[in-house]
């Protein structure tokens, strides 16, 4: 729309806007490699000479906050997304193939779950988990995650299922395969793009989750990566170098994941943005 | 039946146990004065709801949440569309810039919050730069009660902007180039082409962005908890989502907090339904 008179205008505007937008990320990044006084004196300067003290101090904290949080986050995220992928693929398959009014009602109930704020359910959830002796445990949080995020999984799988011809399953069934075999051998492999979307999105969401681990794991029983960072600002208000280092280390897995799988992120997000 | 038991039931069971049933239980709590540390629990009917709408703290949080929601629905949508129009070209350069804009979306809210706490601090980059430009007394972005809420709005908008950009970019890719060309040949200027071709075809993207921003903004909790703790002053940035947690888990007034949470759910569901209805009607008219 800039016309042909100024072909340089578009890239210049694009670059300038992006640079401005990038400033907060740049500041966070360079401050990982600066010492405390420099962070407040000149937040935007390049870290020359760079120091690894902040990173080292995070990795060698005596309370092992970073390592404990990392382990918890990996276990919680990993278990949650594997269970979620399997459960929601099966439920999505069931709802699409069974059809009928009852399936549509269930689907509608699930879809309305996409907008329910955790605040509305957390109070009763803590009671349920207490009764099951799962409060402040990793298993409890995983169980909650599965229930809370299953609507998203079903939404993605059901959408994708509709593009898989039912004849394929019928043919396999005529050949004598049972329903479970047909699903796992024939359908599930075809659902791979949907599985990728579910794993990627829920992986990032659950990794970044803050309120649910804060309440369900509680303050005493270990932290995830996000509640760990939160706890570290409470304790060492002054040491922003350490906090920035921990933030970078905690974000690195997500960033690497994102940079490699960008295409999937964009595709998954924008499936409904275009018509036809 | 077997199909249901093996394929349908497990997923439905966890959803019912951890989402649907808790909503019903929450509603039940909201009709009592339940406080685990202050028994006995009694049925109080709709008293909590009546109190809620006379409670200045709740009315304040309603105001705070509404202002924040308006900012987060409008700012990322408008800027996101503008940026998408600029980035709507092929090639590595524009792809790389799109990556930059989307990065905050995949970052944790806690990380984003802490980055901005430093930027907006009195000795942070923003005020240092303002002083460098000759502003003697730059505002306390997060410490001044009249700025803090808008600062939160800026932070949230920054984090969500990339989402809108990416959705609009996808929408723009669905606009047929030959249609725009034909219009140009017929003498339509860039503004007319945008108004009559591009903008109507972006209707589905607008719907997605508006609904997602609405739901995201309405339940904002993390940023408030990390950045302002509801302050400065009394409740100047306390959203409903923040007050539910404070009332329920810190003050342990679980009956009252549940009434607040149910009210929040009703508002969010109502607002989403209305917005969806309006925006989807626009889509159909195409």
From TrEMBL, chain B:
Source domain of life: Bacteria
Pfam families registered for this protein in UniProt: BPD_transp_1 (PF00528)
Any GO CC annotation of this UniProt entry: plasma membrane
Compartments reported by the entry: Cell membrane
Segments crossing the lipid bilayer: 12-31, 67-87, 99-121, 147-170, 202-221, 256-279
InterPro entries xrefs: ABC_transporter_permease, MetI-like, MetI-like_sf
Topology class, membrane: Multi-pass membrane protein
SUPFAM superfamilies, per database record: MetI-like
Keywords on record: Cell membrane, Membrane, Transmembrane, Transmembrane helix, Transport
Keyword Transport attributed: yes
Similarity-based family: Belongs to the binding-protein-dependent transport system permease family.
PANTHER family per UniProt: ABC TRANSPORTER PERMEASE PROTEIN (PTHR30193), DIACETYLCHITOBIOSE UPTAKE SYSTEM PERMEASE PROTEIN NGCF (PTHR30193:SF41)
Name of the featured protein: Sugar ABC transporter permease
Organism listed in the record: Actinomadura darangshiensis
């Amino acid at each position: 729309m800039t016309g042909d008179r100024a072909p340089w205008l578009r890239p210049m505007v694009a670059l300038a806007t992006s640079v401005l937008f990038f400033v907060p990320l740049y500041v966070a990044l360079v401050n990982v490699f600066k010492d405390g006084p420099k962070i407040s004196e000149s937040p935007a300067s390049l870290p020359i000479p760079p120091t690894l003290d902040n990173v080292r101090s995070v990795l060698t904290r005596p309370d092992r906050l970073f390592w404990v949080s990392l382990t918890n986050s990996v276990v919680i995220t990993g278990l949650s997304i594997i269970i979620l992928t399997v459960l929601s693929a099966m439920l999505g398959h069931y709802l699409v193939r069974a059809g009928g009014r009852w399936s549509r009602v269930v689907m509608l109930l699930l879809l309305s779950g996409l907008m329910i704020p955790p605040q509305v359910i957390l109070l009763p959830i803590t009671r349920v988990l207490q009764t099951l002796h799962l409060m402040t445990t990793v298993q409890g949080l995983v169980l909650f995650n599965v229930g809370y995020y299953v609507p998203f999984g079903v939404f993605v799988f059901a959408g994708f299922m509709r593009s898989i011809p039912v004849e394929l399953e019928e043919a396999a069934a005529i050949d004598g395969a049972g329903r479970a075999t047909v699903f796992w051998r024939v359908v599930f492999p075809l659902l791979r793009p949907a599985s990728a979307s579910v794993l990627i999105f829920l992986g990032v969401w659950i990794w970044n989750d803050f309120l649910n681990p804060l309440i369900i794991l509680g303050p005493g029983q270990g932290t995830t990566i996000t509640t760990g960072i939160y706890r570290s600002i409470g304790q060492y208000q002054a040491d922003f170098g350490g906090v920035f280092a921990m933030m970078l280390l905690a974000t690195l897995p997500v960033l690497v994941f994102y940079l490699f799988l960008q295409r999937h992120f964009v595709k998954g997000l924008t499936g409904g943005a275009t018509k036809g | 039946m077997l199909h249901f038991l093996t394929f349908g039931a497990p997923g439905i069971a966890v959803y019912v146990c951890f989402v649907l049933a808790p909503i019903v239980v929450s509603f039940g709590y909201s009709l009592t004065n339940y406080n685990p540390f202050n028994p006995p629990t009694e049925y109080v009917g709709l008293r909590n709801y009546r109190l809620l709408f006379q409670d200045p703290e709740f009315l304040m949080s309603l105001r705070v949440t509404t202002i924040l929601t308006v900012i987060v629905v409008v700012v990322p949508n408008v800027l996101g569309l503008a940026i998408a129009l600029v980035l709507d070209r092929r090639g590595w350069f524009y792809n790389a810039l799109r990556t930059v804009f989307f990065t905050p979306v995949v970052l944790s809210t806690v990380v984003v919050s802490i980055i901005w706490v430093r930027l907006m601090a009195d000795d942070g980059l923003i005020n240092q730069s303002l002083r460098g430009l000759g502003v003697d007394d730059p505002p306390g972005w997060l410490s001044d009660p009249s700025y803090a809420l808008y600062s939160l709005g800026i932070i949230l908008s920054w984090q969500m902007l990339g989402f809108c950009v990416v959705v609009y970019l996808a929408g723009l890719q669905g606009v047929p180039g030959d249609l725009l060309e034909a219009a140009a040949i017929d003498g339509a200027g860039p503004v007319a082409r945008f108004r009559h071709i591009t903008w109507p075809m972006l209707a589905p993207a607008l719907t997605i962005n508006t609904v997602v921003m609405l739901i995201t903004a309405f339940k904002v909790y993390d940023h408030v908890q990390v950045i302002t703790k509801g302050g400065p002053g009394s409740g100047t940035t306390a959203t409903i989502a923040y007050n539910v947690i404070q009332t329920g888990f810190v003050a342990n007034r679980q009956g009252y907090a549940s009434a607040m949470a149910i009210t929040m759910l009703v508002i969010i569901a109502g607002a989403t339904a209305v917005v969806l209805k309006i925006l989807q009607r626009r889509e159909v008219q195409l």
